[in-house]
């Protein structure tokens, strides 16, 4: 369930655009006005506001915002204002350009979206970057990560409910065999994770747990830490339980040494219209503290206000 | 340019459906009537006829055809009657189920279609086979072929005209290095062929020719024959010059020991609404004989008549 709250009646896109223009005018910027508008509009409404702004002022709203606000607040507002597919394309490009093995953004985009949404990201990537997503991923990553990430971002998984039980059993055994041999980069293991439907994979993982007495992700833990194993675990968690995966990203972002604002902003903006309400419930159960209070404790100012708006605070 | 000839005025879809029903009735089948209708209708018109047939007779037209006709004629009519994306999905599934290293169908579908057309094939594959295309390709192929075919069928190549000249030069050198080392299955070689845009690849191949004095495909020739090298050459030809590639498929289908009807039917049905007129011109230049005459010499009966209709013979 989405956390975003949109008022029952909203002004027209051109009225919203006009108010935003006012927020930019004069001495200083009216950040509260920006939040009260953009923080309470759906993707379709934000798109209409951008269009109205362009028509009225012959300028891109995102560009105007870029000139007015800064820091974590700016990043939150810009990411949020983008269309979901554009936002993912932008985040994927950033992840590719600055690629590091511990980066999970490409895995999230490939696995915690529907097949149609991932394809929309690939279309948005063409439009914005004049290259394909898989082309950039393949050119900027190497080794085992490339073997995993290129098919992940290129997948168009089947989304029906049909499950092949025999296949689930044989592939659970195959996964167990490769994992027992520590052949984590084996092409059959990667084939299974990158091509099977989510429903089929969940069946396979359940069978793994039943037959071998441990969840597959437990068998993929390692000591010392290994980024590729962590990437495999993230893949599996984004497929099986995106809410719990994202709860953990938020938890680590808040509990770490200093706040990881980029991770916090990413999850809040990406999931506010999807399932942030569920993620917040999981967070509260796991941490005995409302997510809202945790965010208040770790952030401040306009950035805090923007995150709280997306979390569902009334305008 | 398409070869298909559609009359200036065509009957309504339900009139066409009624005529087809008549062709199936009574003693024997009126094959000529089937050809005169289906062999002269566009994809959109055939789709409307199938719909009208279903509404009028509560039966699938393809199923009715299946009961009435047989052999090469049946295969030609059924493949032709399908929508392009459905046809490709059907051919891809057949190629996957009976996969052999010399099979080129998956390469053709991946490389001699636009990015949007390939994606439509993947959607049609979901709808018809309840699995994803890349999932089946990955599960049924092995070794180097899997390394090539899975990214090929999963690609969504950028289609703009932008070219990076520096990249074309460096990747031409990289291709030359791998080919000189006989590292034909090297992941960089496969990355380049499977992810770069067609415009970029054509520039890269041109640069290869300029710098190393030979077309890349000449350097990929081998003696004795090697199916994987042939697959790489087919990939390159489908990207650079699909008309010449398909002319060669037709030529080999006709000139071989006995006619390869499946290959002939495939190319004629797939390209009749795309560029079969150009392919026929290339054929005539290369073989000093009109394609029409070559087909007349190698086929007979209703099958011959159907192919000639798709080649542009008037109804």
TrEMBL record, chains A, B:
<dbReference type="GO" id="GO:0005509">
    <property type="term" value="F:calcium ion binding"/>
</dbReference>
<dbReference type="InterPro" id="IPR009118">
    <property type="entry name" value="AnnexinD_plant"/>
</dbReference>
<dbReference type="GO" id="GO:0009408">
    <property type="term" value="P:response to heat"/>
</dbReference>
<dbReference type="InterPro" id="IPR018252">
    <property type="entry name" value="Annexin_repeat_CS"/>
</dbReference>
<feature type="binding site">
    <location>
        <position position="299"/>
    </location>
    <ligand>
        <name>Ca(2+) 1</name>
    </ligand>
</feature>
<comment type="similarity">
    <text>Belongs to the annexin family.</text>
</comment>
<protein>
    <recommendedName>
        <fullName>Annexin</fullName>
    </recommendedName>
</protein>
<dbReference type="GO" id="GO:0005737">
    <property type="term" value="C:cytoplasm"/>
</dbReference>
<dbReference type="InterPro" id="IPR018502">
    <property type="entry name" value="Annexin_repeat"/>
</dbReference>
<keyword id="KW-0106">Calcium</keyword>
<dbReference type="InterPro" id="IPR037104">
    <property type="entry name" value="Annexin_sf"/>
</dbReference>
<feature type="binding site">
    <location>
        <position position="68"/>
    </location>
    <ligand>
        <name>Ca(2+) 1</name>
    </ligand>
</feature>
<keyword id="KW-0041">Annexin</keyword>
<dbReference type="GO" id="GO:0009414">
    <property type="term" value="P:response to water deprivation"/>
</dbReference>
<feature type="binding site">
    <location>
        <position position="26"/>
    </location>
    <ligand>
        <name>Ca(2+) 1</name>
    </ligand>
</feature>
<keyword id="KW-0479">Metal-binding</keyword>
<dbReference type="GO" id="GO:0005544">
    <property type="term" value="F:calcium-dependent phospholipid binding"/>
</dbReference>
<feature type="binding site">
    <location>
        <position position="298"/>
    </location>
    <ligand>
        <name>Ca(2+) 3</name>
    </ligand>
</feature>
<feature type="binding site">
    <location>
        <position position="28"/>
    </location>
    <ligand>
        <name>Ca(2+) 1</name>
    </ligand>
</feature>
<dbReference type="GO" id="GO:0009651">
    <property type="term" value="P:response to salt stress"/>
</dbReference>
<dbReference type="GO" id="GO:0009409">
    <property type="term" value="P:response to cold"/>
</dbReference>
<dbReference type="GO" id="GO:0001786">
    <property type="term" value="F:phosphatidylserine binding"/>
</dbReference>
<feature type="binding site">
    <location>
        <position position="24"/>
    </location>
    <ligand>
        <name>Ca(2+) 1</name>
    </ligand>
</feature>
<feature type="binding site">
    <location>
        <position position="258"/>
    </location>
    <ligand>
        <name>Ca(2+) 1</name>
    </ligand>
</feature>
<dbReference type="GO" id="GO:0005886">
    <property type="term" value="C:plasma membrane"/>
</dbReference>
<keyword id="KW-0677">Repeat</keyword>
<dbReference type="InterPro" id="IPR001464">
    <property type="entry name" value="Annexin"/>
</dbReference>
<keyword id="KW-0111">Calcium/phospholipid-binding</keyword>
<feature type="binding site">
    <location>
        <position position="254"/>
    </location>
    <ligand>
        <name>Ca(2+) 1</name>
    </ligand>
</feature>
<dbReference type="Pfam" id="PF00191">
    <property type="entry name" value="Annexin"/>
</dbReference>
<feature type="binding site">
    <location>
        <position position="304"/>
    </location>
    <ligand>
        <name>Ca(2+) 1</name>
    </ligand>
</feature>
């Amino acid at each position: 369930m989405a956390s975003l709250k949109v008022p029952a009646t909203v002004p027209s896109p051109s009225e919203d655009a006009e108010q935003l223009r006012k927020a930019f005018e004069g001495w200083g910027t009216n950040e509260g006005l920006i939040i009260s508008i953009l923080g309470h509009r759906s993707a379709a409404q934000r798109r209409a506001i951008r269009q109205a702004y362009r028509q009225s002022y012959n300028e891109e709203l995102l560009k105007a915002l870029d000139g007015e606000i800064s820091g974590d607040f700016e990043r939150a507002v810009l990411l949020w204002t983008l269309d979901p597919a554009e936002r993912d394309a932008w985040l994927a490009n950033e992840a590719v350009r600055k690629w590091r093995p511990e980066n999970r953004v490409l895995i999230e985009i490939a696995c915690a979206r529907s097949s149609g949404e991932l394809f929309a990201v690939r279309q948005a990537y063409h439009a914005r970057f004049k290259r394909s997503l898989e082309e950039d991923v393949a050119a900027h990553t190497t080794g085992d990560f490339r073997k995993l990430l290129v098919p992940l971002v290129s997948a168009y998984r089947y989304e029906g409910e049909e499950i092949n039980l025999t296949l689930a059993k044989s592939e659970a055994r195959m996964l167990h065999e490769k994992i027992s041999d520590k052949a984590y980069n084996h092409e059959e293991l990667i084939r299974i994770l990158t091509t099977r439907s989510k429903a089929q994979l969940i069946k396979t993982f359940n069978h793994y747990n039943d037959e071998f007495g441990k969840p597959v992700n437990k068998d993929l833990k390692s000591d010392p830490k290994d980024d590729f194993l962590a990437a495999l675990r993230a893949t599996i968690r984004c497929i099986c339980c995106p809410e719990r995966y994202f709860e953990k990203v938020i938890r680590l972002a808040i509990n770490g040494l200093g706040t990881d604002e980029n991770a916090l902003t990413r999850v809040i903006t990406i999931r506010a219209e999807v399932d942030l309400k569920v993620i917040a419930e999981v967070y509260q159960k796991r941490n005995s503290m409302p997510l809202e209070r945790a965010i208040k404790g770790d952030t401040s100012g306009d950035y805090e206000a923007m995150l709280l708006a997306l979390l569902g605070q009334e305008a």
